[in-house]
Amino acid sequence: MELSTLIGLLLGFIAVGVGMVLKGASLTALINPAAILIIIVGTIATIFIGFPMEDIKRVPKLFKILFAKQQLISKKELVKQFAEWTTVSRREGILSLENRLEEIDDDFLKKGMAMAIDGNDAEFIRDVLSEDISAMEERHRDGALIFSQMGTYAPTLGVLGAVVGLISALSNLNEVEALGHLISAAFVATLLGIFTGYVLWHPMANKLKLFSRREAGVKRMMLEGILSIQAGDNVNAIHNKLFAYLSAVERRELTEEMGNEKA
């Protein structure tokens, strides 16, 4: 479970709810079917108009990604794994790694290692796996774009809802008591539009982009490790190449772990 998403949603609703109470506004004002219809259904309508059906069918999966903890192989574990494979490959030959393919859970890594073991040249392996990464990034961009567009449309629809509410209010100028309620209800649509756009949809799009960058980074690290094994590099060369993908903290931790193992 991705706790940051749940915590963010909870804090967002608390911020608006408590803020309204502190300002003396009633939370029951948010129960406005017309505003909800215009913002929620209107936003959904814009997505259906702006995206093909095959992309819209992916939305439930995208929500699942946002609320599920991203399962990526640890970069430090990858360095250790490639170092081990390099040692075995240089001692027994790259074909000796074929028996270890079934132990690999990641499809991208398994595919790349299989290509290297089968004797494909480095340029071919790089081209194929780089295309895989590019295709993945494009799919992820399309998914994040849906949420970005929802975040763009929702506040504008909030203005539309406010205009509709003001039209209703101005048509009842003779009813002074009802006028205040009508104007208040008109701005509920604006509140909902801004809240859903900038507290929900845009942040969700940003998180999807971040997840995509992280996954692409891990896959590029795998690619470099596979090519190093294919080239017959030694363990030190593997470390030098893959350490570039680690943060300073990860490098220090891994160096300490490796030192402890040798000791």
From TrEMBL:
Q: Major place of localization?
A: membrane
Single GO cellular component term: plasma membrane
**A Pfam family matched by this chain, by name?**
MotA_ExbB
Q: How is the protein disposed in the membrane?
A: Multi-pass membrane protein
- Ranges for domain MotA/TolQ/ExbB proton channel: 102-216
Query: What subcellular locations does the record give?
Result: Cell membrane
Where's the Motility protein A N-terminal domain? 6-72
Claim: Ribosomal protein is one of the keywords in the record:
no
Where on the tree of life does the source sit, at the highest rank? Bacteria
Membrane-crossing ranges are 29-51, 144-170, 182-201
Do you know which InterPro entries this protein is assigned to?
Answer: Flag_MotA_CS, MotA-like, MotA_ExbB_proton_chnl, MotA_N
Choose any GO biological process term that the UniProt entry carries and state it: bacterial-type flagellum-dependent swarming motility
**UniProt keyword list:** Cell membrane, Cell projection, Chemotaxis, Cilium, Flagellar rotation, Flagellum, Hydrogen ion transport, Ion transport, Membrane, Transmembrane, Transmembrane helix, Transport
Family classification: Belongs to the MotA family.
Its name, as the record gives it, is Flagellar motor component
Q: Which organism is it from?
A: Desulfitobacterium dehalogenans (strain ATCC 51507 / DSM 9161 / JW/IU-DC1)
